Amino acid sequence: MATLKNAAIAVKEFSKKIFYTSKKIKMEDYPNEEHLVKILSVENVTHNVKRFKLSKPDSYQFKPGQATDIVINLPKWKEERRPFTFTSLNDWDNLEFTIKIYDDHEGVTNQLGKLKAGDELILHDIFGAIQYKGEGIFIAGGAGVTPFIAIFRQLQKDGKVGNNKLIFSNRTSADIILKDEFEKILGVNFINTLTDEPASQYDHRRIDEAYLRENIKDLSQYFYICGPDPMIESISTDLEKMGVAKDKIVVEEF
Ligand SMILES: Cc1cc2nc3c(=O)[nH]c(=O)nc-3n(C[C@H](O)[C@H](O)[C@H](O)COP(=O)(O)OP(=O)(O)OC[C@H]3O[C@@H](n4cnc5c(N)ncnc54)[C@H](O)[C@@H]3O)c2cc1C
Question: Which of 6, 102, 149, 226 to mutate to test the pocket of ligand 1 (most atoms within 8 A of CB)?
């Protein structure tokens, strides 16, 4: 079962690479780097999201928004690869990942949640669909915000946050990842909507066509969407219906 699942992930990633690069890639060219790294610290970000600081392999470079497959370096977990996004920037001394822990079953994130400083992970090659192309609206559901963390940190560092906007959907206010940091970076352009909790300072709505029409005036800008598949599907369809060009919609499915 695990082997089948890993094969499915590998095929998905392989097709992503073919889709997002002009160079033709053969299966034997499928890059399979392995970097052994140490966990330096683990901290809570929310009740079910943890921040992992890791040692950084030499000359390991990625673009904000990109991800890698992580494997836990323990015999029982060696066959289980799962994708996670870098939330650190290239010029940091260490790598950082911001990971939602699913405690409801014995998966990789559940095991990651039990690890501590000194434990080891294996990182694979770097990939990712979401990269910054220009000013626009970022729409995230839950842990789908992770590619946007590095993108906004980089924009802030470069003094280029401009009029970018983040619409962040969560079940409750306790689920909002890096609320203070996003408020600091984006100010009024950080918009939260909570589906399961009425809170006076936030919207209490799903992101549907009516919500998008109320919050978006300029349809010519970029739209970056990251979250669960059904959320991406419905928001992309709504945006296209509103008149947004397909090539202005950038998505990453979690
Ligand atoms: C490119 C990319 C980048 C990503 N980056 C990040 C990131 O930076 N941070 C982050 O938090 N996530 C990220 N994700 C999502 C992350 O990869 C998944 O959350 C992770 O793979 C889950 O692994 P798992 O083994 O814990 O759960 P899996 O077993 O793979 O299950 C995933 C989902 O199914 C449910 N599920 C499966 N089996 C059961 C079961 N038996 N009982 C109950 N529920 C079940 C889980 O609740 C969960 O919703 C990314 C995904 C992609 C594609």
Answer: 102
